[in-house]
Amino acid sequence: MKPLLFCLSLFAVSLSLTAADVSVSSPDGNLVLTIQTDDALTYTLTSGGTQLVAPSPMGYEFKGEKPLSGPFTLVGPARIKTATDHWHPVVKNRHEDVFLAWNETTLQLIEASGDRRRMDIEVRVFNGGAAFRYTLYGAARIGNRQITRELTGFRIPSTASAWAAIYNPDYTSSQEDSFWKTAATALSTERVMGLPFLIEIDDTHYMAITEACINDFASCYIGRSEGTDEKLVSLSTRLSPLPGEPADGVKVRFDEQATSPWRVMLVADNPGRFIESEIIQGLNPPCAIADPLWIKPGLAAWDHWWSGEVKMETDVIKQYIDLAAAEGWPYMLIDWQWYGPYNTPKADITRPAPQLDMPGILSYARQKNVRCWLWLYCTDVNRNGAFRRAFAEYEKWGIAGIKIDFMDRDDQEMMNWYRRIVACAAEHHLMVDFHGATKPDGIERTWPNLLTREGVLGEEYYKFSPRVTPEHNTTLPFTRMLAGPMDYTPGGFLNVTAADFRPQTPTLVANTRCAELAKFVIYESPLTVFCEHPDHVLGQPGADFLSRVQTTWDDTRFLAGYPGDYVALARRSGSAWFVGVLGNSQPRTLTLDTSFLPTGDYQLEYWADAPKADKKPTELTHKTVTLRAGRPLKLRLAPAGGYVAILTPKP
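^ thats the sequence. predicted structure below, dont judge the formating
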């Protein structure tokens, strides 16, 4: 791993101690975040002079205290500095080489009267977004200080629209829902909405709200507050409460000091630009693993999704190991019931079920050059500290990684547990996949052994629900995926039309074969878990593409698209470019710009919807042609269709 480069340089003199407004602009001067301190504490965000966020509240409320929301005075000079960060990610989710630049300041605030409580606000403004976070300190009373509410708000124009994943305000879910486009004025005041929260201010201004670097703090959601200004809709931060606390109860406890996650607002003229952004990971610390070379992303076969009922038998597991070996994938995931009854006091995550020959399975996998992952239920992992003993045992077995399921929480205690598990797994050279989990926050930069997580309405829903629509699939890249990797588990090869779809086992998938292939390029997941049965894949159209597609990328380019309509991405691996296009229920013809290619001629090998794919979705056209860089790439998508291509430079 190449060394981290980081620099700070002073470019402006300190501000007055009595200044009411402190403004920080992006390096290109387009974005400006201004914090007002001498009355009620508020901030605004503008882009090219257009106000994206009107004056919105900041601060916190505490149990037994009055709100910490101003007025404040500055303790010391608020110096504005420019900074850069350059790193080479251990796991290349989007780029092999990342460079970020921003302007920043830290406001050290003290209440102008009363208890004279302190609070710091750290601000960073990038060319593609703005972020701030709070540092809170101990109070006069010795002991736990208890946050009951974060006051951070986002007052947006009432003419805006948003893509909202709506949840019940009990803050316990697997975060598996669709993001629905909704007028800002129609957003619910009774429920909460998940992050990332994509907003269309107008047709040239988009904003995505999310959070980064959640450490010893609660995760957050978005709520709508009642307001009287007809021109603005008031959104607010809603923290996940601690277990046993009501929705308006205690969210975070701390003694001496607490630092909130970054409150992030990505900004662009097109929502596809957020897919290229590295700001979320950039707001997290560098890699904490001294020697991370053992971390190897890749594709995995998986027995659970297709079967509906787990066939936890040695011969079945070997069949999926054979699939991984035939396709050249490095992994096979052994799912639930491998250690027998789960989520029970008698569960032992180091003892395979009696019908399994685990030593024989692992030996067979080694002979096939395949390594195994193991599924675990979170309660079985945590009970009596079982994970510490089990992870050491898995390392002896040669296990590659662990998939932990059913947390369904993101309060302060659970967010700390995620970090504890990932750190312990790293000690024993285990990679991690969290299911039943909250969305990413960029922690994978610090702990790159955390390859992916669920927190997405993914492919498994096809087996029991009609909710996975082409419109949903084409919205995910612009919403959930903005936060980071998502274990959608693509790969269903029993492709049918919408009219022929029905939930069943074996599972049908209501999009074309090429749309299924496109998910492997479009959806970001360094560990990509393949869901289909070997008999439906080997020798079938498209299986050859799956033996060549990658799961990490040296570069990522957004080519075209709009949430719910279609999305086209180009991702580079070495000198080869992979193009993926995924469409909604409507057929369409597209012309893609190929100016992202370096000059020259390319061999273009493509898999496209066949002429009759609208009636026979399993059919595709596979051809190889020559394309000169810069020439338009024309293609046609069937309803619920897709397209993939591999472009390699010609000598």
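Residues 298-543 form a domain with the TIM Barrel fold (CATH 3.20.20.70).
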